[in-house]
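Is this the right way to post structure tokens for a design question? Let me know if I should format differently. Anyway, here goes:
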């Protein structure tokens, strides 16, 4: 009887445990995205520093130009001309460095943000997605089986055996002192209902 698909998740995983895992994955992804955004924002602060360097370079270049204006003064003109050229060159260099670093800061902030956001989250999602999809397919398959063959004893036994493989011993003991007595119709049905409850299915088995 083709009920279910090959499980890609621990068979003992319950609906309650899966909901907790859902919350954990959502929080994990949200935290790392927040860290990535914060890091990118902090790196962008250096962008303002680059702008300050550019403004300072312009001011220095202006001073160099002003000094060149008095280079014609006798006796000191030659020395002023040399100093003015050095000051102007320094100002131009500062502007070029500031502009280059501004572009580097923009690129760095994007790269860091993307790396910090993706590296911790993508592997988690790659592992989580098959588990979640497998769980969903399994629930759908069991729901369809109950709809089609809910009155058959073979389905009841199938679900009971799944419960024996999936439920912890203390929950099995809550069902029966001897849950392995599958020939006992009453025990078998309670085990089948416990398996439906583990899957979080709001369905009931019709009388067999």
């Amino acid at each position: 009887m083709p009920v279910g698909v090959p499980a890609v998740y621990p068979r003992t995983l319950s609906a309650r445990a899966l909901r907790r895992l859902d919350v954990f994955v959502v929080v994990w992804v949200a935290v790392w995205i927040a860290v990535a955004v914060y890091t990118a924002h902090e790196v962008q602060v250096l962008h303002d520093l680059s702008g300050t360097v550019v403004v300072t370079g312009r001011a220095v270049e202006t001073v160099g130009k002003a000094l060149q204006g008095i280079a014609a003064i006798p006796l000191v003109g030659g020395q002023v001309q040399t100093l003015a050229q050095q000051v102007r060159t320094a100002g131009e260099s500062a502007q070029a460095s500031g502009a280059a670093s501004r572009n580097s800061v923009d690129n760095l902030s994007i790269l860091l943000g993307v790396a910090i956001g993706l590296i911790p989250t993508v592997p988690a999602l790659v592992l989580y997605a098959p588990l979640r999809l497998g769980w969903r397919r399994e629930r759908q398959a069991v729901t369809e089986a109950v709809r089609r063959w809910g009155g058959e004893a073979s389905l009841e036994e199938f679900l009971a055996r799944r419960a024996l493989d999936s439920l912890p011993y203390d929950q099995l003991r809550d069902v029966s002192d001897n849950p392995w007595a599958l020939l006992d119709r009453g025990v078998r049905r309670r085990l089948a209902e416990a398996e439906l409850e583990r899957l979080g299915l709001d369905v009931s088995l019709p009388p067999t």
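Format looks fine. Someone answered above. Worth noting: Residues 174 and 191 are 10 Å apart (CA to CA). Helices lie at 15-68, 77-118, 121-149, 153-166, 169-175, 185-198.
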